[in-house]
Design brief:
This is ChrB C-terminal domain-containing protein. By secondary structure, the chain is mainly α. The chain contains six helices and three strands; from the N terminus they run H-E-H-E-H-H-H-E-H. Helix 2 runs parallel beside helix 3 and helix 2 runs antiparallel to helix 4.
């Protein structure tokens, strides 16, 4: 293979890397709407938080009336969603798995959401989960609609920045 061919392949490789990097960066900043059914629950809020903090800062969220049709590409924590609870994982864990999110905060939240979503009858055995939920639920939107999660997201951020005690 000649020197010119190697240079051309190298240039093509750099060009493709730059193009894919730009596409990935654009995807991370592109506004995307995710829709779940009202009422918001800890699992859907934490899935939304993970999408906003680790996947796309421009993500937006909406709670539609329970049972309303939602396009599959917008669905969050409902049966049509890529990010939904299954027998093994919560919707939150599906976001972490599918987007390869690995952060200390994400890992700290994992056992909490598992108790709240998959074993709610065991909350009393897990005071951190119980306290987290008690602090989160009053911050959730009171009716279907777009947005309204900023305070809940701030609560999760504060929780992640504290050691031990759940923020109040």
């Amino acid at each position: 293979m000649g020197r010119t061919s190697r240079l051309a392949r190298g240039a093509l490789s750099v060009l493709l890397t730059v193009c894919f990097g730009i596409a990935a960066a654009a995807d991370a900043t592109a506004t995307r709407l995710y829709v779940t059914w009202y009422p918001w629950q800890a699992d859907s809020v934490l899935a939304a938080w993970a999408l906003k903090r680790h996947v796309s800062m421009a993500a937006e969220f909406e709670a539609a009336p329970n049972g309303a049709p939602v396009p599959a590409d917008q669905a969050l924590d409902i049966p049509e969603s890529l990010y939904r609870r299954n027998g093994l994982r919560t919707a939150y864990e599906e976001v972490l798995r599918l987007h390869r999110v690995d952060s200390p905060c994400a890992e700290r939240l994992r056992p909490i959401v598992r108790v709240l979503e998959l074993a709610s009858w065991r909350k009393a055995e897990h005071p951190e989960a119980e306290n987290f939920e008690a602090g989160l639920l009053p911050l959730l939107p009171r009716q279907p609609g777009k947005g309204g999660l900023a305070t809940a997201f701030a609560y999760v951020d504060q929780f992640c920045s504290t050691k031990g005690a759940t923020p109040r």
